[in-house]
Amino acid sequence: MFEHTNKQFDADLEAIRTLFLSMGGVVEAMVRVSMQVLAEGRADQVERVRAREKEVNQLEVGIDERIGLLIARQQPAAIDLRLLLSVSKMLTDMERCGDEAKKIAKTARRVHEAASPPVPLDGLDRMATRVTGMLRDALDAFARQDAPKATTVLRADKDVDQDWKAFRRNATERMATTQDAAAIAGIFDLVFIARSLERIGDHATNMAEQVIYMVHGADVRHTGLENAERQARGA
């Protein structure tokens, strides 16, 4: 962890890091529970996800306030300022992951409440596994300040993008074989869920890019995977 001569500053910085990691743990659990709603029809879990989304919103506001106060009071050195600015940006992405998890839970409940639930399409479970892994790896990279670890998230996002394209193609083919309006609506719901998973992957990627910036001061957004991996190595 970055060190600082001011013990109070270090304590405040550690509190921010700990709160952000806790927020990430909540969001990761929300994604898992949302997919359980789809897999098992556990409609009772939707309210659990909604409650946790409110918790995530409160954490976002609280951590951002702490960051603002710390910058104003301590005027941190450049390396510490990078960490604080990175966390501030990552907060937005983490909160949006929570929003997407809530959307998944609500849509999954609608799928199971339909008179004729759609036949599951291949790929959703794989996408869910990938994006929860990406969230976990982004948080781990942040906690360890491990820039090379962050690049594993960027690589995984390319796989998620391919999964998303394949899922859309599969859904389109399925809809072309039926004229049942209810079945088509159900497939649209599954596409909506897949889209939310793809967005969670995008947000995890944004957070991983911020880890690289936090550690090396390199902005790797929109510069390609090869450059991000080079910057992550400090090259």
TrEMBL record:
PhoU domain span: 21-107, 124-211
Domain of life assignment: Bacteria
Pfam families per UniProt: PhoU
Main localisation: cytoplasm
Keywords, sorted A to Z: Cytoplasm, Phosphate transport, Transport
InterPro entries from the UniProt entry: PhoU, PhoU_dom
Subcellular location, record wording: Cytoplasm
This protein's record includes keyword Cell inner membrane: no
Free-text function comment from the UniProt entry: Plays a role in the regulation of phosphate uptake.
Oligomer status and interactors: Homodimer.
Family as reported in the entry's similarity comment: Belongs to the PhoU family.
Alphabetized PANTHER family for the sequence: PHOSPHATE-SPECIFIC TRANSPORT SYSTEM ACCESSORY PROTEIN PHOU (PTHR42930:SF3)
Protein name per the record: Phosphate-specific transport system accessory protein PhoU
